[in-house]
Design a protein that fits this description.
The complex is a heterodimer.
Chain A (H helix, E strand, L loop, with lengths): L1 H4 L12 H8 L1 H23 L32 H37 L1 H16 L2 H11 L4 H10 L3 H14 L3 H8 L4 H12 L1 H24 L11 H5 L11 H28 L7
Chain B lengths: L1 H28 L6 H5 L5 H10 L6 H13 L13 H36 L4 H15 L2 H15 L16 H35 L2 H8 L4 H23 L1 H14 L5 H10 L3 H29 L7
The chains are: A mainly alpha, B mainly alpha.
């Protein structure tokens, strides 16, 4: 049964495809990949190489500036080692980023594929809901939810995901809509395959390119949003460090200890830039239209 | 045209209803709900909380509560602030101007700078300039706005002392110049992301226009490059950007919230955070709904303006 519906050209093996070659040619994407890999390595190996852990308090060494002594990135107002906190925070911020990516991409894809496949009234209702969610400035919605709900890392990821699935849904919907009338879908219909099989086994795999691009950009977006709400005190709660909550309180020491603000912000910027570069490269790799330029 | 306006109005109305569903769901279904501030205070017994719930009508079925809430929303009775007893709409209204001033200034900066960069990139497609601008735009999109604000304060007010670090004006000095000096930093910080977005879309839009027949005709007529650029290309590439301006509204509004926090700017974002801090639910909900309504109105206005300047849209 499946042998008949499987066209050889339907799903090119990603790793050997032209897409990968084009991704590698895209220098910016490689730069992004290197940034993300280096940062992740630092975050996961760093804590094992440092003499301090992220919670140990050294009151004699409060506000030590970076590159001046035992603490390479300096210390915070409690004398905690910023490097140790930064790496530990990185694990948490990236874990939140990836969790959001997985939740938002799965949810958005399901909404998108259902809406695109059934069309008509189903699509109209679902897409209006997407539009309605997009009408809220996501920071407002996020903060309201985070303030109402007792925050923990899992809850924060869920909340951020609840404001990040709409883009994926739109992209998948558009993609599925354009695939719906192609021959292989007609063939699947005539073979009597169920709607669910056609949606998830036939249509969704064909939309995988745009989904991967959107997923990558979602990681970047989620890291940014986590940083925003944690900076404002409604995200990841101390003593658990995140890049955002390390910046919380940095403003009052801006004059005397600017590194408190500079170091975590740079980490966020590097991570987000890295994922955005990768996403851009993937977009060029998957999008056949960019070939012409 | 009239049919387009009515259908577009109808769409906005439907969206508004869904938006109100979401707003009400956020208010009601969040654990704790509107009573969590009472539940937290130690002197309260279970019976007292139940009594307050009955007084506020929270023991009624959810659909009844929803329609009651919606009715009040429609007639403009958005409740009173827990903090100072003022009507919510009045509280929001008194903070609206500061936010609109900040957003307006930032939009002027991002539209002019972003358009210039976008057009220049399109005209010099494939050059080092185009490539540099593309990379810079992506980096700008990746910098957290609040962190950029902190760095800007550190550099321009703490180190260089050129501009004030926050607030909208100096007490006792009401001059326009003073307002301007306070406006520059937050507006530029808020504009950063939008300059990036705008320049990218403007580049694409310009590239589409450049290859169209009427530009070739203009060139064939022997018009100067400058005249073709300003009379034929710029105007036409700006049309799709009106829609973009509408679509970018939630981002700009969200960015304004973050910028206001860093610069202690007395607008809606600042009010939102203060109200969260005081668990002032009516104001929080009011701001959530007000921001969504503002966005819907902005999108509606953008679509109508596009239809007005480019009637081809009505043919679809």
């Amino acid at each position: 049964m499946t042998a008949m519906t499987t066209e050889p050209a339907r799903r090119p093996p990603f790793l050997k495809s032209r897409a990968l070659r084009r991704f590698v040619r895209h220098r910016l994407a490689l730069v992004g990949l290197v940034m993300v890999v280096l940062l992740s390595t630092a975050c996961f190996l760093g804590p094992h190489l440092l003499a301090y852990d992220e919670l140990s308090i050294d009151l004699r060494a409060r506000f030590a500036p970076p590159f001046s002594g035992a603490h390479i990135f300096g210390t915070d107002p409690l004398g905690r080692d910023i490097a140790a906190r930064l790496f530990h925070a990185g694990q948490i911020s990236m874990a939140v980023g990836f969790s959001v990516m997985i939740i938002a991409t799965c949810f958005g894809s399901v909404i998108g594929v259902v809406s695109g496949y059934y069309g008509g009234r189903t699509s109209a209702v679902l897409m209006r809901v997407v539009d309605a969610f997009l009408s809220f400035p996501s920071v407002f919605l996020l903060l309201a939810l985070a303030a109402f709900i007792q925050p923990g890392p899992v809850m924060i990821a869920l909340i951020i995901a609840s404001t990040s699935w709409m883009e994926v849904a739109r992209i998948v919907e558009a993609e599925v809509k354009s695939l719906r009338n192609q021959d292989f879908v007609q063939a699947a219909h005539m073979l009597g395959l169920t709607g669910r099989w056609i949606m998830f086994r036939e249509l969704l795999p064909n939309a995988i390119g745009p989904i991967i691009v959107a997923a990558t950009l979602t990681v970047a977006r989620a890291i940014l949003l986590e940083a925003y709400i944690s900076f404002l005190g409604y995200g990841i709660q101390p003593p658990l460090p995140s890049w955002g909550n390390m910046l919380n309180g940095a403003q009052q020491y801006l004059q005397s200890a600017p590194w408190l603000a500079i170091v975590p912000g740079l980490a966020i910027t590097i991570a987000v830039t890295g994922f955005n570069f990768i996403g851009d490269g993937l977009r060029d790799a998957f999008d056949s239209r960019t070939q012409e330029h | 045209m009239l049919r387009y306006i009515t259908s577009r109005l109808g769409q906005s109305l439907i969206l508004l209803v869904i938006v109100s569903f979401i707003g009400f769901a956020v208010l009601t279904l969040a654990p704790g709900g509107p009573l969590s501030q009472f539940a937290l205070s130690p002197g309260m017994t279970q019976e007292q909380i139940a009594k307050i719930a009955a007084q506020m009508g929270l023991d009624r079925p959810l659909p009844v509560q929803y329609f009651d809430w919606l009715r009040h929303l429609v007639v403009g009775d958005w409740g009173t602030s827990y903090r100072d007893g003022q009507p919510v709409l009045a509280v929001i209204g008194s903070h609206l101007f500061a936010t609109l001033l900040l957003m307006g200034t930032a939009t002027v900066i991002s539209v002019s700078l972003g358009s210039a960069i976008g057009i220049a990139s399109a005209l010099r497609r494939g050059t080092a300039f185009d490539y540099t601008m593309a990379v810079l735009a992506m980096v700008a999109l990746s910098i957290p706005t609040f962190w950029f604000g902190l760095i800007a304060i550190y550099a321009f007010s703490l180190q260089l002392g050129w501009l004030p670090a926050g607030n909208m004006y100096t007490v006792g000095d009401g001059s326009v110049l003073d307002y301007l000096r306070h406006l520059i930093l937050p507006a530029v910080v808020l504009a950063l992301v939008d300059v990036a977005v705008w320049s990218r879309y403007m580049r694409t839009s310009t590239l589409t226009v450049i290859n169209q027949d009427f530009v070739r005709t203009a060139r064939a007529k022997g018009l100067t490059r400058r005249r073709i650029l300003f009379r034929h290309i710029v105007g036409n590439s700006l049309v799709p950007m009106v829609t973009l301006a509408g679509l970018q509204l939630p981002t700009v509004l969200g960015g304004a919230l973050v910028t206001e926090t860093v610069f202690t700017w007395p607008g809606m974002g600042r009010l939102f955070l203060d109200s969260l801090g005081y668990s002032d639910y009516p104001v929080v909900m009011g701001l959530l709904m007000a921001s969504a309504i503002l966005v819907l109105l902005g999108n509606l206005a953008a679509d109508l303006i596009v239809a007005l300047i480019d009637p081809r849209i009505l043919l679809d």
